[in-house]
């Protein structure tokens, strides 16, 4: 199951993240895939805004993990934002405790997830962002898990841009 979106500006990318946040719930893992400058952090910031995160969300490139408190559908949740760009070996994902964030009261966003592929849940949502610089972005949102189908269809049918 996949949905495709076009983002003309960074604000569009953030807005799509914000809209997706309305369909997220505790236990969801979202893998953010794209080249440097594609808009992964902007998308994550939109998710944070949609989850009522207070304060700025920055890329955790050097700290690897940032945690925030927010709300998803009226329920308190923890948002864990990871950036695995600096990891050199898959085992490092285990060392930093990546799987500790895959719990019911947490939504987990992971930038540069490929290095940790073996540790990621099969039912994750993938957000692939193509493009960089001033170019429009093609954003492909997909999952191999059928439980995402209804949420993705609703997102596509109710997108506000």
From TrEMBL:
GO molecular function, one term: metal ion binding
Keyword Amino-acid biosynthesis annotated: no
Name of the protein this chain belongs to: tRNA threonylcarbamoyladenosine biosynthesis protein TsaE
One of the protein's GO biological processes: tRNA threonylcarbamoyladenosine modification
Alphabetized NCBIfam families for the sequence: T6A_YjeE
Compartments, as annotated in UniProt: Cytoplasm
Keyword Iron: no
Entry-linked InterPro entries: P-loop_NTPase, T6A_TsaE
Keywords linked to the UniProt accession: ATP-binding, Cytoplasm, Magnesium, Metal-binding, Nucleotide-binding, tRNA processing
GO CC list: cytoplasm
Pfam families (UniProt xref): TsaE
Main location class: cytoplasm
Family classification: Belongs to the TsaE family.
């Amino acid at each position: 199951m996949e949905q495709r979106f076009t983002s003309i500006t960074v604000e569009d990318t953030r807005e799509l993240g914000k809209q997706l946040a309305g369909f997220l719930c505790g236990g969801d893992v979202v893998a953010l895939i794209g080249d440097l400058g594609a808009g992964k952090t902007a998308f994550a910031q939109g998710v944070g805004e949609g989850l009522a995160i207070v304060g700025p969300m920055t890329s955790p490139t050097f700290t690897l993990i940032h945690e925030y408190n927010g709300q998803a559908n009226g329920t308190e949740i923890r948002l864990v934002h990871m950036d695995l760009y600096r990891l050199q070996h898959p085992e490092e994902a285990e060392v930093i405790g990546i799987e500790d964030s895959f719990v019911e009261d947490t939504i987990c966003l992971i930038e540069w997830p490929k290095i940790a592929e073996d540790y990621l849940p099969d039912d994750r949502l993938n957000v692939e962002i193509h493009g960089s610089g001033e170019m429009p972005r093609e954003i492909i949102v997909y999952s191999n898990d059928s439980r995402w189908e209804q949420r993705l269809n609703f997102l596509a049918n109710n997108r506000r841009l």
